[in-house]
Predict the structure.
Amino acid sequence: MKKNHPQPPTMKIIDVTPEHEETYCQCLEEWSDEIREAGDYKRDWYARAKGGGLRVKLAIDENNVVGGMIQYLPIEQSPAQGTGLYFILCIWVHGHKQGRGNFQKKGMGTALLQAAEDDARRLGAGGMAAWGVVLPFWMRASWFRKHGYKKADRNGMMALMWKPFGADAKAPAWIRPRKKPQGAAGKVVVTGLLNGWCPAMNMVHERARRAAAELGPQVEFREVRTDERAVFLEWGISDALFIDGREMRNGPPPKYEKIKKKIARRVKKLR
Ligand SMILES: CC(C)(COP(=O)(O)OP(=O)(O)OC[C@H]1O[C@@H](n2cnc3c(N)ncnc32)[C@H](O)[C@@H]1OP(=O)(O)O)[C@@H](O)C(=O)NCCC(=O)NCCS
């Protein structure tokens, strides 16, 4: 059951403003080397997405410090299939000690979700959808369940949660993989599919690119940009890393050394 905590009276939810755009593009983690490693993909994606249906809200505390963010867009622009719903790409309340510090468990997440739902309703949406991991890490599906969301679909560890606003709303579904990268004779092919909105994915992509380059001419890095809707629909995959035909799939973003080791193992097999 959802606990009822009084919302701190001085906390505010605001739409992102130009002064906060850089903070938002760094997911509130300006202190993090990993965010720098993720490159400029999110900035570039945001520059294109902000003129479209993307909505971004921030939670700010009594000292005007941004503690949390939520970003959502029409589901027709998301990795899920549906109509007339909004899809939460990401909700994040800064939880690290570094930088701005830990803002979790003060009601910011709940307030951000409520504000996004109110906004989506006002925009005429039939409901809200969101992804969540079925295990207790990263963005948990169970957090959305506590806030009245139900499971609409599941693809491996990724649950697609949703909250209809009315009886007419239709449940969304995941768009499933439709195509797989191919290997090539005499070399190792590393394929990075990348949308650009998520620094965690962007960082893995950049690590793989760097590792592939360091391992020399026997390794080819191929980039597939899925922010182009037609490309995403052709593949049915938004963000993923494949070494030859095999997806590297393991919860938290894999470290550079791990990616390099995996590619190197394939290179050895060429001989
Ligand atoms: C999930 C998440 C958004 C929730 O944000 P949050 O601000 O911590 O959420 P809330 O404070 O509204 O609620 C969290 C808990 O704090 C409790 N809480 C809320 N207000 C409180 C208050 N004033 N005092 C004490 N506790 C409070 C809630 O009851 C809730 O408890 P429970 O979940 O154990 O039942 C946040 O934890 C998060 O960002 N997690 C990581 C998700 C992630 O990886 N996102 C990136 C995806 S790309």
Summary: The chain has a mean pLDDT of 95. The domain at 12-171 is CATH 3.40.630.30 (Aminopeptidase). The chain is about 30% helix and 25% strand.
